[in-house]
Amino acid sequence: MRNSNNQTAIYLDKINSAIEKGMIAKEVVCSITTGFRSVPSIRTKPGLNPYHASVADIGYGFDAVQGTIKRIQEGESIPFVLEMLVFDLDTLRISEMQINPNFELAVEGVETELVYISRFLHQQFKESITEANRLGKKLIGDNWEEIIRKVQNIQAIPRL
Known about the structure:
Layout: H1 5-36, H2 40-43, H3 48-73, H4 81-106, H5 113-140, H6 143-156
Helix pairs in contact: 1-3, 1-5, 3-4, 4-5, 4-6
């Protein structure tokens, strides 16, 4: 990482804080999606399973970023630590991009308070993920794009 140890620690704390905010919104979205099963007009729409999968991807992504940060903070010697952090952050960004199309497919033709609240919460974790990626890019600097090129082939595998 291009920064001093102190700057690195500050960036990792800020990334973790951004992720925490997104995790809170994601947890509420998980609770709401359970409620979708009780709304007949949503329950019978196509897209609910891809939407649930997108929410789960985001949850796993948040966990992955936090796990990598924790390992770095604890001083674990990790081969390819930068690649892991970039992979985790960018994969989380990709997962976030999938949520809205899958959500809109699941709720097509339905306007309920749950739908409005979900859209608001999606925006909350989108902002969180965007901020975490922005901070990751600042932390890693010019190497970010080079690392992205290295990890893209791996990222594509679960998305096929």
